[in-house]
Amino acid sequence: MLTTDVLQEQIKKSGEILRKGGIVAFPTDTVYGLGADAFNSKAIERIYNVKRRPRFLPLPLLLNDISQISIVAERVSEFALFLAKRFWPGGLTLVLPRADSLPVYLTSQSTIAVRVPKHPVPLTLIKLLGNPMIGTSANLSGSPSTLTADEVKQQLRDKVDLIIDGGRCPGGNESTIVDVTGEVPIILRHGIIPQYEIQGAFEEYQEVNSNAHCSRL
């Protein structure tokens, strides 16, 4: 792990790289991520090539805070916001209806996956970039997720413009992905937030709404 001064310098340099359309790897609260400007088509294409990721699989986004949801998604349900307020910042990725304004190269599907990480490095990078940031795992598609900068180097080698060595990721597991585009949440990937916490939040939301409805009768 780098000293604080060197780490801060790498973060600052990474912000410049991202603004110029480059890609960087960085630690998060779950696993190491591979980032780029979400609104730079060339950078996104490069991430697909570096990861050897099939083009039909959309890339998830990292946001700086919950207020950025309106930039990338629309018709966000009350339950989706309930989950976001409960688990963000943290290891929950929400699949939401995409905003019509999103470019096709970002996703050709009707949904977009977003998360607010609980780690100072990606949050600072998003601020420096000024846009939502691609936040896919920093590994080759189909290979194990990376938890250290050395593991990123072993898989991606020199294909990344810069790898921020922030030490071992504290989470040690990928985010939990939940589709909240329907009436009932669907867990698409089991991850750092266990299923029972998602289910418990849903039951709590239903109970709160039920009590609110009864109070109006």
Structure description:
This protein has one domain (4-215): DHBP synthase (Alpha-Beta Complex). Helix content is 37%, strand content 17%. It contains 7 helices and 9 strands. The protein has helices at residues 4-19, 41-51, 69-72, 78-87, 120-129, 149-156, 195-215; strands at 24-26, 33-37, 61-62, 92-97, 111-115, 133-137, 162-163, 176-179, 186-189. The chain is globular. It starts with a helix and ends with a helix. The mean pLDDT is 94.
Rg on CA atoms, Å: 18 Å
- Number of domains as seen in the coordinates: 1
Record field, number of beta strands: 9
Main sheet: strands, sense, barrel: 9 strands, mixed
Average pLDDT score? 94
Distance between the termini: 59 Å
In the predicted model, the low-confidence regions spanning at least 5 consecutive residues are none
Number of helical stretches of at least 4 residues:
7
Secondary-structure arrangement, i.e. CATH architecture: Alpha-Beta Complex
Strand order of the biggest β-sheet:
7-1-2-6-3-5-4-8-9
Helix/strand/pairing category: alpha/beta
Which H/E pattern describes the elements?
HEEHEHHEEHEHEEEH
Q: What is the overall silhouette?
A: globular
Supply the CATH superfamily name: DHBP synthase
Q: Strand percentage, roughly?
A: 15-25%
Helix proportion range: 25-40%
The CATH C-level class name = Alpha Beta
Short characterization:
By secondary structure, this protein is α/β, with parallel strands linked by helices.
